[in-house]
Amino acid sequence: MSMNREAYELANELQTELLKNGDCLMETLDEMEMRRYQQAVLKEIREEKKMRRRTFGRRSAAACAAVVLLTGATVFGGEVHAAIRQISWSLSSALGLSADLEAYRDVVNTSVADHGYVVTLQEAVVSEEKLVVNYTIQQEDGASMEEILVPSGVVYVNGKPVLNGAGGSAGYLDEEQKIVGAEISYELPGMDLSSVNEYRLVVDSLGHEKDLEGKWEFAFEAEGADLIADTRRIRLQKEFILPDGVSITLEELTLNDLEQRISYRTSERTDYVLQVLTEDSKGHKAEFDTIYYDGKIGSGYMQNQEIIEDGRIDAEAESVDLTFYTVELPKESGRMSDDYVQVGDTFSVTLSF
Q1: Is there a contact between 160 and 205 (Cβ–Cβ < 8 Å)?
Q2: What is the pTM of this model?
Q3: CA nearest 104: which of 81, 127, 129?
Q4: Would you say residue 50 has pLDDT above 50?
Q5: What are residue 150's DSSP bridge partners?
Q6: How far apart (Å, rounded) are the C-alpha atoms in residues 313 and 254?
Q7: Is 269 exposed, middle or buried (0-12, 13-18, 19+ CB in 10 A)?
Q8: Angle CA(169)–CA(36)–CA(335) in degrees, nearest 5?
Q9: Cα–Cα distance between 223 and 184 in angstroms, integer?
């Protein structure tokens, strides 16, 4: 059984640099736990990024079709950078979604230049305990880029920094490799994002193999009320016992236009990574992989990674079968095993749409 590497990369691209003032809204993973997770996937992340430089175009074919390049000058701080192309690149296209997120998105479309690179924050969508954005990156002189640069930094909510999980995917948007597109999800667990909040994204580096330090800062307001209200919730409350004796409860299946996820809770911290395979009554199959897990409070969720290929649980399906799998994090080697083992029996739930 194959593991979706991008999903695991998303789950484990955790920010480790402590903020200078140490002020965080959420408690972060302890050092040993963080190291275990990062060590397990670090090598896989490097290999996956190298592979994406060769194969990203296959995945982003639909997304690239939605990119609109507007030839002309763009003004940054009073200076004209004629080589920079303004880009209209929707978040739904960046995520490979068939659904249109127009009803839920906030269009920021703000560009900041520093150290010869222009970063543009295109759009933002706020969901349950999550902020999802898409960036484009170009060189100010319009030259081609030799590698895919990934933005990293800190997200602030109402003026307070949140140091937690963040990750996503990136790739070139043009054949000349002059424009990089990146979608990033910032995990904001335990926060009420349904009302209007002030967000500030401070990108302090662009990197892949070697980081380029700088400052690209964006501020905007957004709320997740509509998307959260339009989320369908199916109660699961199915308990399993992992091989290490830890009890896990699959709590809820949630479905909306942005994502499909299964939330879960563990009785104590575990070194097992979780996965659920589903097949609905219409015959559509999907794979839910671990995206976020906080071992200190025993809470996490898995996300449907088949949405990119339009592999959603069908909105008209009457029921869905779920099969639970798990694999242990490596204790020594950094290479993640694909040998998922089924735990318990397949079970079925009625979809109350």
Answers
A1: no
A2: 0.74
A3: 127
A4: no
A5: 207
A6: 11
A7: middle
A8: 65
A9: 17
